[in-house]
Amino acid sequence: MSSTARRQLSSAPLLDAIAGRTPTRTPVWFMRQAGRSLPEYRQVREGIGMLDSCFMPELLAEITLQPVRRHDVDAAILFSDIVVPLKAAGVNVDIVAGRGPVMETPVRSRADVEALPRLEAPVPGLSEGIAGILGELRDDQVLIGFAGAPFTLASYLIEGGPSKAHQRTKALMHTEPDTWHALMERLVEIVVAFLRQQIEAGIDVMQLFDSWAGYLSAKEYREYVLPHSTQIFSEIEQAGIPRIHFGVTTGELLGDMALAGADVVGVDWRVPLDEAARRIHAAASSKVLQGNLDPAMLFTGEDVLRGEIRRIKEEARRAIEAGHATGHIFNLGHGVLPDTQAEAITKAVALIHEEA
Ligand code: 1CP
């Protein structure tokens, strides 16, 4: 894999934190920092479908950069979606406003798995969009690319859309393990192709979102999911960019998720960072932590917010001092809620930078 456009960033706080150096300020970015919380996003997206916008290079670059300009975050996250590579491969998927990804035909049998298209051509607009973003970022700001992990993608394909309990997905893995693993292998190929394209276009860091992994028991995760996520991290290891792994409600899975091979493990707000680091260190090795402010705290005032930020920074410090973690990237425990005030996000970023 050749990375033709890799930037040499010597002063990016986020890369310093990942490398175990002391950053000049606490690096922070927020999952879902682009999107509905920003009036300028609602304006440029008007009349354009969510998925369509992901294939339009100028638009995806503009939307990616909006939160960086407004909030002074230390990273941009590529504006795309976990179902973009499926759509580009030819899967009939749409993103329905207020709901999420919906499949025209769910994948539920071995024949459905065999019929899944492969991602054989570059995703249209993606490389051009990334080039546009990199041209605008300062060299202390990184671009994070991403993909959905195979389990989370499989859930959308099997359930046919967003699901509360993931019951058909779990039923398939337990009743037809061969079909399950065949599906996961196909998704690994698609995810690796999507990430390789982003890496070749010059992303600085990547994050694998296994958003719904927290619905699994540790036993299910180890048997049906971990080998496939591990495969992804190992296939892109040679590219040499830092790798982040994140899921929601994964307190009971942190150790297992850390074994998949990422350098950074994302933690939601349910587990304090020092406790999360203990679990990760006991199962795998010391990692960089990412998290873990509750997105609901962006609806409180400055006093509560400041207190929460102090507590989280203190917990991260304790984890690092104990040798259970090697660094900390500040983030939310999950994405910005759509009705969050943009000003509250800017304020939180400023407090995170200013608090010791
Ligand atoms: O019209 C709109 O604005 C739709 C809302 C929206 C947006 C802004 C969707 C639909 N996707 C996105 C962009 C997106 N998706 C980004 C880039 C923006 C950023 O982070 O700043 C990213 C990283 C994603 C990744 C994504 N999509 C995940 C993993 C992250 C997470 O939140 O856990 C998941 C699970 C999806 C599926 C999805 N796409 C959209 C929605 C509403 C959902 C979730 C649906 C569900 O609850 O199952």
UniProtKB/TrEMBL annotation:
<dbReference type="GO" id="GO:0006782">
    <property type="term" value="P:protoporphyrinogen IX biosynthetic process"/>
</dbReference>
<feature type="binding site">
    <location>
        <position position="211"/>
    </location>
    <ligand>
        <name>substrate</name>
    </ligand>
</feature>
<feature type="binding site">
    <location>
        <begin position="32"/>
        <end position="36"/>
    </location>
    <ligand>
        <name>substrate</name>
    </ligand>
</feature>
<keyword id="KW-0456">Lyase</keyword>
<protein>
    <recommendedName>
        <fullName>Uroporphyrinogen decarboxylase</fullName>
        <ecNumber>4.1.1.37</ecNumber>
    </recommendedName>
</protein>
<dbReference type="GO" id="GO:0004853">
    <property type="term" value="F:uroporphyrinogen decarboxylase activity"/>
</dbReference>
<dbReference type="GO" id="GO:0005829">
    <property type="term" value="C:cytosol"/>
</dbReference>
<feature type="binding site">
    <location>
        <position position="334"/>
    </location>
    <ligand>
        <name>substrate</name>
    </ligand>
</feature>
<comment type="pathway">
    <text>Porphyrin-containing compound metabolism; protoporphyrin-IX biosynthesis; coproporphyrinogen-III from 5-aminolevulinate: step 4/4.</text>
</comment>
<dbReference type="InterPro" id="IPR006361">
    <property type="entry name" value="Uroporphyrinogen_deCO2ase_HemE"/>
</dbReference>
<comment type="subunit">
    <text>Homodimer.</text>
</comment>
<feature type="domain" description="Uroporphyrinogen decarboxylase (URO-D)">
    <location>
        <begin position="144"/>
        <end position="160"/>
    </location>
</feature>
<comment type="similarity">
    <text>Belongs to the uroporphyrinogen decarboxylase family.</text>
</comment>
<dbReference type="InterPro" id="IPR000257">
    <property type="entry name" value="Uroporphyrinogen_deCOase"/>
</dbReference>
<feature type="site" description="Transition state stabilizer">
    <location>
        <position position="81"/>
    </location>
</feature>
<comment type="function">
    <text>Catalyzes the decarboxylation of four acetate groups of uroporphyrinogen-III to yield coproporphyrinogen-III.</text>
</comment>
<keyword id="KW-0627">Porphyrin biosynthesis</keyword>
<feature type="binding site">
    <location>
        <position position="81"/>
    </location>
    <ligand>
        <name>substrate</name>
    </ligand>
</feature>
<keyword id="KW-0210">Decarboxylase</keyword>
<keyword id="KW-0963">Cytoplasm</keyword>
<feature type="binding site">
    <location>
        <position position="156"/>
    </location>
    <ligand>
        <name>substrate</name>
    </ligand>
</feature>
<feature type="domain" description="Uroporphyrinogen decarboxylase (URO-D)">
    <location>
        <begin position="27"/>
        <end position="36"/>
    </location>
</feature>
<dbReference type="Pfam" id="PF01208">
    <property type="entry name" value="URO-D"/>
</dbReference>
<dbReference type="InterPro" id="IPR038071">
    <property type="entry name" value="UROD/MetE-like_sf"/>
</dbReference>
